Amino acid sequence: MTANPVRAVSMGIARERVDGREKVTGRAVYAVENDAEAAVEAAAGAGRPLHGWLVTSTSARGRVLRVDASEALDHPGVVAVLDHTNAPRLADAEDRELAVLQDDRIGFRGQIVAMVLAETPESAREGARLVRVHEQAEPFSATLEGAETYRPDPSSVGSATDTEQGDVEAALAAAPVSIEHTYTTPHEHNNAMEPHAATALWRDGTLTMWDSTQGVHSVASTLAPMLGLEKDRLRVLAPYVGGGFGSKGLPHGPEVAVALAARWAEGRAVKLAVTRQQMFPLTGYRTQTVSAIRIGAEPDGRILALEHAVTVQTSVIKEFVEHAAVPARMMYAGPHRRTSHRVASLDVPVPSWMRAPGEMPGMYALEVALDDLAVATGVDPVQLRVRNEPEVDPDSGNPFSNRRLVDCLHRGAERFGWADRPAEPRATLDGDWWVGTGVASATYPANFFPGNAARIAALGGGRYRVSIGAVDIGTGARTVLQQIAADALGVGVEEGIDLEIGDTRLPFATVAGGSSGTGSWGTAITQAAQQFRADHGEDPDPGVHTTSTAESYPDTEHLAMHSFGAVFAEARVHRWTGEVRVPRMLGVYSVGRVINPTTARSQFLGGLVMGLSAALFEESVRDARFGHVVTQDLATYHVASHADIGDLQVEWLDDVDERATPMGSRGIGEIGIVGTSAAVVNAAYHATGIRVRDLPATADAFL
Ligand code: MOS
Questions:
Q1: If you measure from the C-alpha of residue 244 to the centroid of ligand 1, how many angstroms do you get, rounded to a whole number?
Q2: Closest ligand 1 atom to Cα of 357
Q3: Would you please indicate which residues are annotated as catalytic (active-site) residues?
Q4: 642 to 613, 639, 648: CA distances (angstroms)
Q5: Residue 630 has pLDDT above 60, yes or no
Q6: Does ligand 1 have an atom closer than 6 angstroms to the CB of 286?
Q7: Where do runs of H (alpha helix) occur along 378-491?
Q8: Is the CB of 354 inside a 6 Å radius of any atom of ligand 1?
Q9: Hey, which of 140, 645, 656, 701 would disulfide with 664, CB 3.0 to 4.6 Å?
Q10: For residue 267, how far is its CA from the centre of ligand 1 (angstroms)?
């Protein structure tokens, strides 16, 4: 079923963030901040909030024998120390990541084993230092190297674990040209500017949480049954969120800890901000990925056979699979194809979403492999991709709703000056710098999450209140949803729309994740507006309202819906030190209609920066002897800084995809990181003739 399209008047207009001024002047209230504190105090009437501090395990596997809180409790500021013996019980402790302080088992190093509650953050921190945790350590495994792997459940992959078409082995054996290499991406951590944090107040049988999350309703749906509450007894608010990058897409242990503490402290609010160091084990990460790729091709580059076999790790306490082999299923033509995922279960923290989970490492591997194939066949890398453009989705056989990869490649090549590129690598030396250029394709599925609802209420005088429990994690959703609502109701943005988001008291909304938010929430708003106009006409009385759940979904049964892009990079590699600089990058995208060019551009730029950062710097180091991440701060976990970023350009094709959403848009939050690391590595190869297949591409690789 296709949704009714709407007329774009406000959509397409570049608007600055409506909350930009509040944010840069410090008036925007985050989960554990100022005004929230006053609000909590006023609501509670029971003293100032308590401050929590987490105490974490030092063993990677074992048991908590005893938590000695006596010294901590002697501290004048400390009110309580909760551990597995005295913390409130959960009604459901099935999920071992979320069932914190429920039993003595330790499943990874850095797991929550106690929580100190104190009058100030300082005394909470000091109290945590005074807690003595006696642990019985057991043998454990914390490294993917040599670990036994298994075939995971398709539900963890998000689609089939393995796929196979044709006869890959026979086609590879017969192929005139073939390549076979292993490509790896490291263990990586997403570190939002605002750490995971929450203020929680349990009063009159209701828990209220101001949470830094990508989905207020998903936190409530997950935690309410665990806490033995009806969902409407758990109110979650997230008016402002300082970034998430996937790490706040699913609730994690600290949110349960603060909820339990609030239960214990009933009537008095509890605040918890996870420290930067504690984010590394407690709030998810991208696992290391190993991609074994084999491609057989004709001499002109046309792919005959393609295999992408992925090995990743997960955690013994909860299965999560980085679905890196999925994009190879739909990206290029070729009759014989095989993809697979295998997983090792380790005694380590629980992996989770990090911007473009699956697509980012998977497309890194595939797009460097395409560059290897370009070298093996002597075909230009842009031409090679064009030559392997499929007629229909090779995986499902369905037509694409709007596949314009070739247009992105051609437009990018023209703007980047690709025609002037020397065919051979190591052809340009500028002073002490080898100079080269590279390209990679990008793709991301047009995810649409069902069940979203919106409420439209007339305020009189042509003004409407539009309410939906969505979250703006810094992407500009608040700004963009107003534009969508304005067009859906046929009014101006400023004078016509009063938007409410970020609260479970508002109609159900799915997570700000999978680049699905604007499309899914916007569809609900558009359909609610259409229903409202059908119910109440053009000039409604103030007070009348309609709440409506989105009923039309894109036809993913019969159409393949993905966004596409082409990323071009120039790399300069120092001939004596191996230092890599990236003076310019260009991304050209086809993403359906761009609703707000200002906020969209920022999403693409942020994606390019994050992809560059992954290409050259990012790597978490886990010490397999102890099971912890050594690089647990932003001094040792390097991310790109301003000085690392050169000239970044992004543009998008003039598109409207009304089969994806009634707005004609697809998601844009994640595609910018996809392919970018490959473009950088491919450019460094072109500069030096040295092929890096393992990220990050640090200086030593080029010496
Ligand atoms: Mo995004 S990693 O799906 O929040």
A1: 8
A2: 2
A3: 670
A4: 11, 10, 12
A5: yes
A6: no
A7: 381-387, 405-416, 477-489
A8: yes
A9: 656
A10: 35
Q: Please provide the CATH number assigned to the domain covering 34-139+191-282.
A: 3.30.365.10
For range 163-184, the mean pLDDT: 98
d(CA 128, CA 132): 9
Assess whether the C-beta atom of 403 lies below 6 angstroms from ligand 1.
no
Tokens of 585: 């990058």
pLDDT per residue over 249-307, tens digit each?
Answer: 999 999 999 999 999 999 999 999 999 999 999 999 999 999 999 999 999 999 999 99
CATH for 20-27+451-550 is: 3.30.365.10
Ligand 1 mean position to 611 CA, how many Å?
A: 15
Cα of 293 from ligand 1 centre, angstroms: 25
Single pTM value for the model: 0.97
Ligand 1 centre from 596 Cα, in Å?
Answer: 20
**In a mutational test of the pocket of ligand 1, which residue from 285, 322, 323, 355 has the highest number of ligand atoms less than 8 Å from its CB?**
355
Q: Is the dihedral angle over the CA atoms 528, 530, 532, 538 positive or is it negative?
A: positive
Q: Spell out the CATH class of 149-188+286-446+558-702.
A: alpha beta
User: What tokens does 529 get?
Assistant: 């507006």
Cα 346 to Cα 369: distance, rounded to the nearest angstrom:
29
Neighbouring C-beta atoms of residue 520, cutoff 10 Å? 25
Query: What are the domain boundaries of the chain?
Result: 20-27+451-550, 34-139+191-282, 149-188+286-446+558-702
CATH topology of 20-27+451-550 equal to that of 34-139+191-282?
yes
pLDDT averaged over every residue in the chain = 96
pLDDT at 45: 60
Alpha helices in 158-291 (DSSP H): 168-174, 216-226, 253-264, 276-282
Residue type, 641: S
Q: What stretches of 469-542 show up as alpha helix (H) in DSSP?
A: 477-489, 493-496, 517-536
Q: What angle do CA 129, 197, 83 make, to 5 degrees?
A: 45
Which tens digit of pLDDT belongs to each residue from 89-134?
Answer: 999 999 999 999 999 999 999 999 999 999 999 999 999 999 999 9
Q: How far, in Å, CA of 628 to CA of 346, rounded?
A: 12
CB count in 10 Å sphere of residue 654: 7
Question: β-strand 234-237 against 132-137: which pairing, if any?
Answer: unpaired
Ligand 1, pocket-test mutation among 248, 287, 518, 670, most atoms within 8 A of CB? 670
Element containing residue 366 per DSSP (H, E) = helix 359-377
Using a 6 Å cutoff on CB, does residue 412 contact ligand 1?
no
Q: Does residue 249 have its Cβ closer than 6 Å to ligand 1?
A: yes
